[in-house]
Write a structure and sequence with these properties.
Blueprint lengths: L9 H6 L3 H20 L9 H22 L15 H4 L5 E5 L6 E5 L2 H23 L5 H21 L2 E2 L11 E5 L6 H4 L4 E9 L6 E9 L5 E4 H11 L5 E4 L17 H4 L11 H13 L5 H15 L6 H20 L5
Parallel strand pairs: 4-7, 4-8
Antiparallel strand pairs: 1-2, 3-6, 5-6, 6-7
The chain binds zinc ion.
Length: 343
Amino acid sequence: MSKLLCAFNESNLAVMGLYDAVYDMYIELKHIYNSTIKQLDTTKLPFPEKVDDMCRNQVRPVMESFISSHTSFFSSDYVKLHINAYGLKGFSMLDTKHGANPLQVIVSYITFRSFLDKFLMVVVRIIAQRRNRQAPYKAINIVFEEVNQYIDSLAAQYRKRIPMSSVNQAPSENNHLFVYSQFSQISCNQKKHHIVPDVFCAEKCDGSGFYSIPIHCCETCGRKFVGKYTLDYYQKEFGPICIVAQKDSTTDSPNAFPCLNQESELHAQGYNVVEGQMSEEERRCLLISLLQSRKMTYFEISRDIKNAIHMQQHLPLRTSAVAKWKRDLEFLSKYIESHSEFK
Ligand SMILES: [Zn+2]
């Protein structure tokens, strides 16, 4: 099973309008593990498998709600799929690696990329089990291939609908989009308004055309919501669009804007440029200490920052974050010139 072949990937998720929903699930599962681990005695943490067991009862309903409401994205044979113990067997949010000393085991959270692979395997196991009840037995890798191909062809259909011409579709009249980082946190959701999936016709900034973005629309107050990962993906893939991106006031989680890719090592080490959280000096101290302690190399740090700049430089909301990242990069490259041992 090559990673490249996994059809449940960021690009397909974005075109099917699932990116933010799946990312929400990833973050929620991480929280479950986090709060479970926090309750344990950290001087003698149990084996990762034991932590998986302890989290399972909370992991299950989170996955269940996604799988049962998104069954059509995995298979056309079933109206609803439900998660079960067989599907979840072996699933873990933790990654274990051996350190330089073979007795040392390093445990970390799996990346979003690897979560996608593992989550797809959970779904494949459930489908294989259902299928093998009525039909001749099929090996799990064959079922994997089938599901994978199904997702790919579905994504291809969605992808065809993305480019729009102004002839067949007028751009959406109101170009205000409320950008959210967690769907469950948007204000209309909390007010229990009726929210439906919709499509937004976006005009490209360079005037070369239009494309469609999956959004959510509140039927009560008419506000349109777009997930920040979805918006990032589309602008990166198809070019910047003319919109007024607004922050939904209730989604003001301190980590929501603007941050590095949540999977990046630098983010995990606590580096952020969120207004009012870390001063320029604090950020630089952290960067130097990461280099000195050999936790990250110069290459790794600048790669994470450059990726963030690349992903977000088109977004009007991120101008100040991008400027901070660029200044930090400049600082780092100067620092490295005089401390070549960290190169
Ligand atoms: Zn509303």
